[in-house]
Amino acid sequence: MFTTKKYPEKVIDFYCLSDIIKPNTKRVISKVYFENYINKDKELAISVKEIVTGRKTFFITPDTSLIPETYLEDFFALGYECYFVENDKRVKLQKKIDIILSLFKDVILFFNLDFRIEDIEWSTYIRNLIEKYNNRTSIGVLYTRRQKKDEKAKLEQKYLYEMGLGCGCIQLEYQKRQNFEIIEKILFANQAQGRRKNIRAICTPACTYSWHQGPIDISGTLQDISLSHFTLISPAGKLNIQLYEKVNDFHFNIRGFLFRSDAVLIMERDLGLDKLYVFSFVSSTGANGLDPRIKQLFVPNIYKLMSSNCKNLLDQLYAKVDDLTAKNPIEDLPEI
Question: From residue 254, how far is each of 268, 304, 309 by CA, in Å?
Fold first, then answer.
């Protein structure tokens, strides 16, 4: 546990990164970790553990004409946490992938074989990656439909049978609508949801709630939110509400997106002077979850909230690695 000077009243539950990263990258990542990851709002310290938890899928240099970035929001609504990793001049792609594989415990990578990079030959690079991280079961490859059947057969022979990639050798179609269904089936087959049915987004101070409890106005900042649940912390004894009681007409402001919903208290936990409450959304018809119209509008907002935490953390690590390894590769950094 650790407290910051800026937030002496808050105890930040830090996560020991040395337990989740490869030894040869401990020095780089720990420098970012022990500075404490803080989101762009600069107001709320976010535990790295919360960001790295859960299975994540990364599409490496995808062809966005075949898999548009908007599909990531649709996959999120289905329970899949997916990201694109682009090639840029700022940080070499190899370093980005090393950081991703070192930081996240549970990750799936899909490489776009049609993307050309001057110093990478995909089959050689993927083979080396498998030897380095022993992760053939969490790698797959994508490629655009080939004109000749024997080209497809050769790719499958190399990546499925010779290299033994566990996540598939997938041929994409020229029509992106078909590709959504293809990728969805591949994510399902590879259990890319992990143990989660709905993905939580860690909230910033710009995520607030309010409701009227009789003559009293209750308001505060959310801890996290998903398409099915939300969590808040309040001083013990402040909320007069019983377990499994329904609360009508919660008002939410999620970084400018306003909506209302009923909710049921499904769990509570003592935190010393405070108490943690977990609520489940209830629709206007009494069913579990948000109203379909609200859910449809909410998906892009909650995906942006969730993905920004992960992207901000990775950007910090990319920048640190670029600084610290300008003369030395990641592998040459000593352990801490």
Answer: 22, 11, 15
Distance CA 126, CA 271 (A): 46
Give the separation between CA 336 and CA 3, rounded to whole angstroms: 22
CATH architecture assignment, domain 201-298: Beta Barrel (2.40)
What SS3 state is found at 173?
coil
CA 16 to each of CA 1, 20, 167, 311: distance values in angstroms, whole numbers, following the listed order:
10, 8, 30, 20
Contact between 302 and 201 under an 8 Å Cβ cutoff? The reply is yes
Superfamily covering domain 17-198+306-332: Response regulator (3.40.50.2300)
Phi, psi of 175 (to 5 degrees): -95, 120
CB atoms within 10 A of CB 178: 13
Residue 101: Cβ within 10 Å count: 20
d(CA 62, CA 37): 28
Q: Which amino acid is at 202?
A: I
pTM for the whole structure: 0.81
The enclosing H or E element of 190 equals none
Low-confidence ranges of the chain (pLDDT < 50): 1-44, 325-336
What is the domain partition of the chain in residue ranges?
Answer: 17-198+306-332, 201-298
pLDDT, position 328: 44
Q: What is the reported pLDDT for 323?
A: 57
Structure-token match 């489940």, residue found: 280
Q: Are 237 and 268 in contact (CB under 8 A)?
A: no
pLDDT value at residue 6: 36
- For residue 198, the SS3 value is coil
Q: Tens digits of per-residue pLDDT, 214-229? A: 788 899 999 999 999 9
